[in-house]
Design brief:
Length: 323
């Protein structure tokens, strides 16, 4: 992947879906084993150019997510590298049984891309929000789970997934004009978290595009409260980077930030790790809680659930100050 400042800006403008579409076209041009499958969401998946240029490597199965996973598994068994695209909530819940059987139990080399994770579907409402997908799929054996932080990392996640022989779920979040978290090229590695900011008082662990909000919250903590925060991009949700978890020991508080229900997601994964330690640390899980609230556009939903930078900083201070 030729990463340069212009490419990084383009990925930001396109958002994660558009960036993945560009990466998929590049991968398919170089490897005829790459097959893109969609459940009647070709254009929303960012795959218009791929379907037009390489129609033999594109398949629309219709609104049939369960069948799509079965078709993808058959292609994988035949030596192809299938990427199956649909909305995150449909990928995780409508096709959960097929993901378990074909990707977990049979370990077929299927890459499932769930876009619209979190609140990206805006006014489509609660039926289309993807806020339980990680929790629904995380317990499935052998399934690798990725949640990239910006457009560049989304493209890198797809490329990395194509290069491993394992079932992978890639969770895409955010809209177009995604904030840039990685302003220069970096080495994306599956299973490796990335330290974005160094601090000594608290550690903020995030995944998805709200990582940019976590970084801004860290700036607020330092500027307004004199609290120094480490910020970590946990782009691989499973397997969690235990080496990084060991490195951040000794802070006064660990806070997780995610555009997902606080049950079953990143916060649960970090809590499970900490609970097994001999010296468990205080943890604050910041995410979706409070039930299915009224629909709204993306920015409204982020503020509604307290995932904007100011709310994140306030929640951390309330917990850290009482610790």
């Amino acid at each position: 992947m030729d990463v340069n400042p212009r490419m990084i800006r383009t990925c930001s403008i396109l958002g994660q879906r558009g960036s993945v579409g560009v990466a998929m076209l590049d991968l398919a041009r170089r490897d005829e084993r790459i097959i893109a499958l969609v459940a009647d969401v070709g254009s929303p998946s960012g795959l218009d150019r791929l379907s037009a240029e390489l129609p033999a490597q594109f398949m629309n199965v219709g609104i049939a997510e369960q069948n799509m996973i079965g078709v993808a598994a058959g292609l994988a068994a035949g030596g192809h590298i299938p990427f199956a695209f649909t909305l995150a909530n449909f990928a995780a819940m409508r096709a959960c049984e097929q993901v378990r059987h074909f990707m977990g139990y049979m370990k077929e080399n299927v890459k499932l891309v769930g876009f619209g994770g979190g609140f990206a579907m805006g006014m489509f409402g609660n039926t289309h929000y993807g806020v339980e997908d990680i929790g629904a799929l995380r317990s499935i054996e052998h399934l690798v789970m990725l949640s990239p932080a910006d457009g560049l990392s989304a493209a890198k996640a797809v490329e990395s997934a194509a290069n491993i022989d394992a079932p992978v779920y890639i969770r895409l979040t955010g809209l177009i004009n995604t904030p840039i978290v990685y302003a220069e090229d970096y080495d994306f590695k599956i299973g490796k978290a990335f330290r974005l900011k160094e601090g000594k008082d608290v550690a903020v662990i995030s995944a998805g595009v709200v990582t940019a909000n976590a970084l801004k919250a860290a700036e607020i903590l330092e500027k307004d409260h004199g609290v120094s925060a480490t910020v970590i991009d946990m782009s691989t949700l499973k397997p969690i980077d235990e080496d990084m978890m060991r490195e951040i020991g000794g802070v006064g508080l660990i806070a997780t930030v995610e555009e997902h229900n606080i049950i079953g997601g990143l916060g649960s994964a970090v809590s499970e790790y900490l609970a097994a330690r001999d010296d468990p640390m205080p943890i604050l899980r910041i995410g979706v809680t409070g039930g299915y609230l009224p629909a709204g556009d993306y920015a409204y939903k982020i503020e509604q659930y307290g995932l904007d930078p100011a709310s994140i900083a306030n929640k951390i201070m309330a917990k850290y100050g009482s610790a």
